[in-house]
Specification:
mainly alpha, disordered C terminus, cell membrane
């Protein structure tokens, strides 16, 4: 979080008088950091490519699902998350309905089918992302649904020893519903501009080789 804050301050110090978003050089706030790297490091051979490689490495780092010991679950972060989710669904919901003598090959086929279904849903949701605005607030909001519920369950277990499994279950469900309702309403009011967050003052007075035509056409002056 501290690195993100310092990165934002550095970008503001550079673009406060020539905001790429206002000038039309980028179309989304999420594009500001890649634009900054390409703008600053375009004269350093290999550095922009190293930055892109770092982004891909973050998504393709080695990982393993702790739910299962099968080696085929070792893969990239994205596929590991999908495989972990499949293993969790199978272990918690499907395995109780499967015969104990089921072969590992059959179990593997079940997991592969689940992976295809979850992967397809994930791929379809990619087309929804452009309509959700900034990704970071959305990701934090979605994570807070599960995080808040887990915090409530752990706190209840520590401070309320008399709580039983049924009470914890109903409380967790109520927490998820309530948190989801809050997040949905917040996202809706952000989309209709009822909730807005003021930004630091920026302008385009310091832009070089820049005209009003760039704002309407979205052309990049560096490419002209």
């Amino acid at each position: 979080m501290s690195i993100s804050i310092f990165t934002g301050l550095i970008m503001f110090a550079k673009y406060w008088d020539c905001d790429p978003l206002v000038s039309g050089r980028i179309s989304q706030p999420d594009e500001l950091l890649p634009y900054y790297i390409l703008d600053v490091a375009r004269t350093v051979p290999g550095l922009p490519g190293l930055f892109i490689a770092g982004i891909f490495s973050a998504a393709l780092r080695y990982s393993k699902c702790p739910k299962d010991d099968h080696s085929y679950l070792k893969s990239s972060t994205l596929s590991a998350v999908i495989n972990c989710l499949c293993a969790s669904i199978y272990e918690d919901f499907i395995s109780r309905y499967v015969f104990k003598g089921t072969s590992e090959r059959t179990v593997s086929n079940y997991l592969k089918v689940l992976a295809i279904i979850i992967g397809s849903i994930t791929t379809i949701l990619v087309y929804v992302v452009p309509y959700l605005g900034n990704l970071l607030p959305l990701a934090v909001s979605i994570g807070s649904v599960a995080g808040g519920t887990l915090l409530g369950l752990y706190t209840s277990a520590v401070l309320i020893p008399a709580i039983n499994a049924k009470g914890a279950l109903y409380g967790g469900i109520a927490s998820i519903i309530f948190a989801t309702w809050i997040i949905f309403c917040a996202q809706y009011y952000r989309s209709v501009k009822v909730i807005t967050y003021p930004t630091l003052p920026v302008g385009i007075n310091g832009c070089q080789n820049f005209t009003l035509a760039n704002i309407t056409t979205g052309q990049n002056p560096h490419l002209q």
